[in-house]
Prior knowledge:
Blueprint: E1 2-4, E2 11-16, E3 22-28, H1 37-51, E4 55-59, H2 64-81, E5 88-92, H3 97-101, H4 104-109, H5 115-128, H6 130-134, H7 153-171, E6 173-174, H8 180-183, H9 191-204, H10 221-227, E7 231-232, H11 250-260, H12 271-275, H13 289-300, E8 330-339, E9 342-346, E10 353-356, E11 377-386, E12 391-395, H14 437-449
Parallel strand pairs: 1-4, 4-5, 6-7, 10-12
Antiparallel strand pairs: 1-2, 2-3, 8-9, 8-11, 9-10, 11-12
Amino acid sequence: MGLDPGIRTGVKVAVVSDTGKVLDTSTVYPHEPKRDWDGSIHTLGRLCATHGVNLIAIGNGTASRETDKLAADLIKKIQQLAPGTHIEKVVVSEAGASVYSASEFASKELPELDVSLRGAVSIARRLQDPLAELVKIEPKAIGVGQYQHDVNQTAMAHALNAVVEDCVNAVGVDLNTASAPLLSRVSGLSGAVASSIVRWRDTNGAFRNRQQLLDVSGLGAKTFEQAAGFLRIRGGDNPLDLSGVHPETYPVVQKMLAAAGRPITELMGKSDVIRSLKPEAFADERFGAITVKDILAELEKPGRDPRPDFKVARFNDGVEDIKDLAEGMVLEGTVSNVAQFGAFVDLGVHQDGLVHVSQLSNKFVNDAREVVKAGDIVKVKVLEVDLARKRISLTMKLDAPGAPRGAAGQGADNSYRPAGRGERHAAPRGAAQPAEGAMAAAFAKLQTKR
């Protein structure tokens, strides 16, 4: 179940199946002005019972913490009525959800849904299968990165698309559930060929093996050679189709099976057996020892997910707004963005705080990206809260005694407000790494002249 938080416009609700198909939608009004808390819980509870919901995704926008409390009360109520029922709730980034909602692709994919409800569908799907959902959104709209308006737009688009393509190919794509936008990111597959694959699947049912790809209109031998290794088939005719082993190397695997004297099901995932096989014994003129090593590595962990275990930050109870923050508080948060001058951390108060590069570590740090990356769960201490400018200064040096006094010790501003929609990001004054001695004095003088 995806919940797209809102106050006066209500909380948009969407329930999706395990394959991402929309099952039901609704809108509830637990907050101002209607304040229909009990009615909202009743509606959500009915949807959970009807569709067997076991996971709730909550967008991290306006009214996120209040909606998170609504979900907690819902789970508590369901567990009282049906002991043993297990439902979890997770707050997820809703960056780009509104862009997707109004996009041409969303109009084609969900023509019967109102634009406001499409955001809830996106929030539900991005927790379920983030890669498949986020590829539908232009990379620069996801909200990661700085100075997007100051660089060559064509070069940036090319670089971002290359990163997304690398990511998709590293993870692999489920051939029987992937959407056309996701398939089009696979090496060798154009948008037209991706659409042809989806049409073939709709007409003929699920793919049983990779060789059936050659029956798809517009997909020839060369395209098959490029793309087949990145496409996965679960429960197909050949267990190897679930792995990253390319079909053209299947004969090499057959030699391995003959040498091991075991069927494929007893070889895949069996580290002790696979490590006993010597790559040199199966190398030939076409496939060298390095290729054979890659095949063995894939057989050892077939269809592996390169992502680490999924973790979420645990926000402190009672800390729901910037006004609830106080100097010296130690909180857990999620790194939402990283720039050279520091990292932004989501504390669940609708305003990200900044850990300046000088506050990331007790050691000298030249670039914040050396220490943290987006998505990291970190513990921070509140150094300063500026309610008037909505700025939160944080430190990851938990033994820090108090708020820093700027980059050169001259009172430079060490906080930063993330840009809103349509705004430009600019580095904060004093964002340079602290200097010492004469350099510090020169820097302070320069700032004064400016």
